[in-house]
Specification:
alpha+beta; three-stranded antiparallel beta sheet; about 230 residues
Length: about 230
């Protein structure tokens, strides 16, 4: 093969490599732009947290709900009492127990489907973002409410599980019911059930100290919506 032909083929290979490199760079730039749009996008959380607002602290909320439980259990033949922890109350709990208030601000909780969505303003480097933890609740024996993060979103982008702790180190501590159920107003009663009520909050069922727990009491005795809205 002559030298000019070899130079021509080498030039063609260089042109192909240059085109491929340019195409890859373009794909990377587009992917980065799409990711930026997703992480700064609207996650579609819906309406602001619903009331009523039972107080500005876990202790105040426990006191208000404890008074409701006392009234209900004082009725003749009462087996249990169901109260609503509204989305606004849940937001107060999440803000009060926020383990990293400098990193996560304006904490809000919404009930969506069978989950609670805990959102907070945060940042990734220079970018202002909204971080949302989608959690489920379970009730362990002894009345301990355990939250589990099922999904973590930044803006409109779901974060893979192996990256979640780097984005939000709070993990399952993003929401705690401990300060509520151990409050003066509620600690004397036994927590026996819970149900997430979409658009409203969480209904908690309590029984008198001398009675045994009935895990199905909340489902069998839901609060009328007009009452739960205060």
């Amino acid at each position: 093969m002559t030298a000019p032909a070899q130079r021509g083929r080498a030039g063609e290979r260089g042109l192909v490599r240059g085109c491929c490199a340019g195409l890859i760079a373009l794909i990377v730039v587009v992917a980065v732009l799409v990711l930026l749009l997703r992480v700064t996008g609207d996650p579609g959380l819906g309406a602001p947290p619903a009331g009523p607002d039972d107080g500005g602290s876990p202790a105040a909320i426990a006191g208000a709900l404890g008074a409701e439980v006392e009234t209900e259990l004082g009725r003749p033949g009462a087996r249990g009492a169901v109260v609503l922890v509204s989305e606004q109350d849940l937001s107060t709990l999440a803000a009060a127990d926020n383990p990293d208030p400098d990193m996560f601000t304006a904490v809000k909780v919404r009930a969506r489907g069978a989950q609670l969505w805990v959102s907070a303003d945060s940042h990734l480097g220079p970018l202002a973002v909204l971080v949302t933890a989608r959690i489920t609740l379970s009730l362990r024996p002894g009345g301990q409410v355990t939250p589990t993060v099922e999904e973590l979103d930044v803006g409109d982008q779901a974060i893979p599980g192996f990256m979640q702790s780097a984005i939000d180190p709070r993990g399952d501590a993003v929401l705690s019911f401990a300060s509520l159920v151990s409050g003066v107003g509620l600690s004397r009663y036994g927590l026996e059930c819970l149900v997430v009520m979409p658009g409203r909050g969480v209904e908690l069922g309590f029984h008198a100290p001398l009675l045994s727990a009935d895990p199905g009491y909340c489902a069998a005795n839901p609060l009328p919506e007009a009452i739960s809205e205060g």
